[in-house]
Design goal:
This protein has 294 residues and is mainly β. It is 0% helix and 52% strand. It contains no helices and 36 strands. It has strands at residues 3-8, 15-17, 20-22, 27-34, 39-41, 44-46, 51-55, 61-63, 66-68, 77-79, 86-88, 91-93, 100-102, 110-112, 115-118, 123-127, 133-135, 138-141, 145-150, 158-160, 163-166, 172-177, 183-185, 188-191, 194-199, 202-207, 210-213, 219-224, 228-233, 236-238, 244-248, 253-259, 261-264, 268-272, 280-283, 286-289. The strands form 3 sheets. Strands 1-4-7-10-13-16-19-22-25-28-31-34 form a 12-stranded parallel beta sheet, with no helix packed on it. Strands 2-5-8-11-14-17-20-23-26-29-32-35 form a 12-stranded parallel beta sheet, with no helix packed on it.
């Protein structure tokens, strides 16, 4: 018989520990739903045609757990307009779609020391909200984007001490679109066509990070779509042998600041198209090393 939820928590301060939920299609909505001030510990949630773990409130904690899904349109971890939740030391996977999704108004959440994986043409994790922290995570997607920060509501997020990879041609490992004031620090970002793609975004900061494009014509960092203000500091950009380290596509504005950056491996270290009126490129220190000859 079909049921709506594997476990539905209707009140706060509930602990779910050492529970295993395995669903082959009879759970319709979610393996587990928690509201606020609850914990999921040392548990395994595996579902199909439903969400894995849904959070609808605040101050929940998930740790030492495995959450898997295998279908597009559903999410292994679904933080739905819920804030101040913590996910740590967990494995989150959805081969068929987005593994972790933070909707708009899902603010001040933390995901740390976890693996987030997909093999789909979507993203391993998408964040449409503000002031979230992704730290010490391994994020990968062999079929699409690694991490997407999307829409105007995605602001003031911090990605730190994490590895983000995508091996899919035509995708980037990190994709920011229409966002503002997001920071990537102490992280490794590796994509095929593009490692980090910033589109129509404002005030992005990348510090102490490495961006690598593995495709022959790949670009390490691509700024486009009328983006405004970019800071890249103490970082390494490695483009493909026929690609670019840093590409500033047409129409960006504001201040692009480059300081203590090393560009390597690419045919063109820095390529600049026509920018918007008032555009400023400020270079404190940039080193071109081992560029492709020709």
């Amino acid at each position: 018989n079909s049921v709506t939820y594997g476990i539905y928590v209707s009140s706060s301060y509930v602990t779910i520990s050492s529970v295993s939920i395995f669903n082959t299609g009879n759970i319709q909505s979610a393996g587990v739903l928690v509201p606020s001030w609850s914990s999921v510990l040392y548990s395994s949630i595996s579902v199909q045609t439903a969400h894995g773990l849904v959070m609808t409130g605040s101050n929940n904690t998930v740790s030492f757990s495995t959450i898997t899904d295998n279908v597009s349109g559903y999410f292994a971890l679904y933080i739905n307009a819920a804030s101040s939740n913590v996910v740590t030391r967990s494995q989150i996977s959805n081969p068929g779609g987005i593994a972790a999704y933070l909707t708009s108004n899902a603010n001040y959440n933390t995901i740390s020391q976890s693996t987030i994986t997909s093999v789909s043409g979507f993203a391993a994790i998408e964040i449409d909200s503000s002031s979230n922290s992704i730290s010490n995570c391994a994020i990968s997607n062999s079929g699409g984007y690694g991490l997407i920060l999307a829409i105007a509501g995605s602001r003031h997020n911090t990605i730190s001490l994490s590895t983000i990879t995508s091996s899919a041609a035509g995708y980037s490992a990190l994709y920011l679109t229409g966002t503002a004031s997001n920071t990537i620090v102490d992280s490794y970002i590796q994509g095929s066509t593009i490692a980090a793609y910033i589109l129509g975004s404002t005030g992005t900061i990348i510090n102490s990070s490495v961006m690598v494009a593995t495709n022959t014509t790949g670009d390490a960092l691509f700024l486009a779509g009328g983006s405004v203000n970019l800071t890249v500091a103490s970082s390494t950009l490695r483009g493909g042998p026929s690609g670019r380290g840093l590409m500033l596509a047409e129409g960006n504005g504001g201040l692009v600041s480059i300081g203590s950056v090393t560009v390597t491996g690419a045919a063109r270290g820095l390529e600049i198209s026509t920018q918007a009126a008032g555009f400023i490129l400020a270079v404190d220190s940039i080193t071109f090393r081992g560029l492709t000859s020709g």
